[in-house]
Every structure is written in C-alpha cells, then in structure tokens.
C-alpha cells in the first residue's frame, strides 16, 4: 500500500506539471515541470516523504528504459540535427558537464560527512 501511495504522489506531481504546461503554454516537458514542482515541495517541507522515496527507487533502477523513447525520437529527426551537429555536440557536452557538477555539488551539500573511520567489531 505504501508503494501505491508513493506512485500516486508522483503521478499527482506529473499531472500538476502537465496542467502547468497546458495552462501556461510553456515550451517544457510536463515531466520536467512536475519534477521541479516536486523538488519545490520537498524544499518547502524540508524532507522527502518516505512513500515517495520508496516508489521512486524502482523507477531509478529502470532509468535507462525510461530515457529510451527520447533517444529513439532523436533518430526520427536525425536529418534536421545533421545540419546543426556542432551546436548539438556543444549542448550535449555542456549539459553533461553541468549535470555532473550540479550532482556533485548537491551530494556534497546534502550528504552527511563522516570524518571518523567506521568502527569495526573485533
């Protein structure tokens, strides 16, 4: 039941993102807007709800499969991208570097720092 409750929360934020995109005429993915809304909710609340965390873990394990439709869609417009290969390459490189840097920054900021070595039982 806890897993279903978490999926309902994730679906609600995805639908809220879809509603915001439709009403606002935003040129963004509803999923991305929903994730931003979910992040703002977590920041306002100060913690991640346990049911949402437990529901998101199986999705993270299948992340490659969730990204696959977007990758396949790129091959449909490959002839249009071909004319702008340098801009696409630079965008992908910059986006990757920014993703890695922001992930590292968040990990350093949010994860607890253990300076003492772990104790071992002997």
Strand residue percentage: under 5%
SSE arrangement, N to C: HHHHHH
Assembly state here?
A: single chain
Q: Quick check: average pLDDT?
A: 85
Number of helices: 6
Helix coverage percent of residues? over 70%
Count of β-strands: 0
Q: Indicate how many domains the architecture comprises.
A: 2
- Compute the CA-based radius of gyration: 19 Å
Sheet with the most strands, sense and barrel status: none
Structural class: mainly alpha
Q: Estimate the global geometry from the Cα principal axes.
A: extended
Low-confidence stretches: none
End-to-end Cα distance, whole Å, is: 41 Å
Question: What features would you describe in this structure?
Answer:
- The protein has helices at residues 2-24, 30-45, 50-61, 63-76, 78-82, 85-110.
- The chain is an all-alpha fold and 122 residues long.
- The protein is extended and about 60 Å long.
- Pfam families: LrgA.
- Keywords: Cell membrane, Membrane, Transmembrane, Transmembrane helix.
- This is Murein hydrolase transporter LrgA.
- The chain crosses the membrane at residues 30-48, 60-78, 84-106.
